[in-house]
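Could you help me review a protein record that somebody else here produced? What it holds is a sequence and that sequence's fold in token form. I have pasted the whole thing underneath without changing anything:
=====
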Amino acid sequence: MKTVTFRKEVQEQLDLIKTADIVVGIPSFNNARTIGHVVRAVQAGLAKYFPDRKSVLVNSDGGSTDKTLDVVKETSIEDYSSILLHHRVEPLFRIATPYSGLPGKGSAFRTIFEVAEALDAKACVVVDSDLRSITPEWIELLVKPVLEDGFDYVAPLYHRHKYDGTITNSIVYPLTRALYGKRVRQPIGGDFGFSGKLAKFYLTKDVWQTDVARFGIDIWMTTTAIANQFRVTQSFLGAKIHDAKDPSADLSSMLYQVVGATFELMETYADVWKPVRGSEPVPAFGFEYTVGLEQVNVNTGRMLNLFREGLKNLREIWTDVLGLGDFREVERIGLLGAKEFRFPLGLWTRVIYDYAIAFHEKKLPAEHLIKSLTPLYLGKTASFILEVEQMGQQEAEAEIEKLCLEFEKNKEYLITCWK
């Protein structure tokens, strides 16, 4: 494995710190407005739950121009009694450094993994820099399963609005669950805990010049941990509320990033997922409670229009990918009015499996192929929203569970067609 060269001032800090029990990483890019709150929550969590552990906070920055690094260096809890602490607390070491490599979250994470390895850390955490709902308890829930229970990977478990996280709910969760047989509810959650051993393992993988370094890191970390038999769990963190993503950001690009990374991992781990049948729950930590959720506004009319446009414009590609029978079925539901519009679950699982097979067979350039899935995904999302409109959160979750079971049931189809 190559030796890592850190910037001079970072290397000096590492020489001074020598070793650490816990490393908390916060990747950032122009998050001066929100990162102060995240740093305070991390500091409070470490002080409250791990007062005698040597901890290091690493801010891995993508070249912010808005004082993000200054905020990280200057933010601190002035009065520990405000968080009901009256004992001595180990000082928190901080390292704020720009990362090198391809611009993206994965490159930022790589720097955090490298610091963890250099300090021989026992447990690591990464949290997003724009979190508004992070509390000190998150640190306990992401670290303790690693330090005290011997888990290697802690995925987050959040309550989210029933219309939120639709790429996770309709594609990434059901697909990864059916493939690898573990029910990790938020495989692309963004906030994770992991062991020092797993951080070292991640660094041995040669993915840092690929799309993983840019935007596929979350699903890559989860899948790599599961597929390589590391001990996986999840912790309930309450609600995830963060800066709203730019609504004008191109949905098909986001779909390409997430689904492309998931399909790419299917290539890497085909020997692992092919023998798996069914799925099992993974252990969960944290007291699950009901949380108030921010309303998510949706426009199903627009989604259905885009789905129907896809029927006109992408006919040739869809017929080639799905086969004539399923294309006819898609065409049939395209004729339904908004009230009765439903996207059958079995059809949807075959759509995703057919796209995975087309990706595997390189039928089209990857980006072109996955972006052509966008109108189908919008049709499926509109169908889900129309179906759960009058339902509570738990009933909506039960609908997602039905979809997962359908993915598991139809997995034979995927395996048969996968040459």
Remarks:
- Strands lie at 22-28, 55-61, 92-98, 123-126, 153-159, 182-183, 192-195, 232-239, 280-281, 284-285.
- Residues 300-408 form one domain.
- The chain has a mean pLDDT of 91.
- The two ends are 34 Å apart (CA to CA).
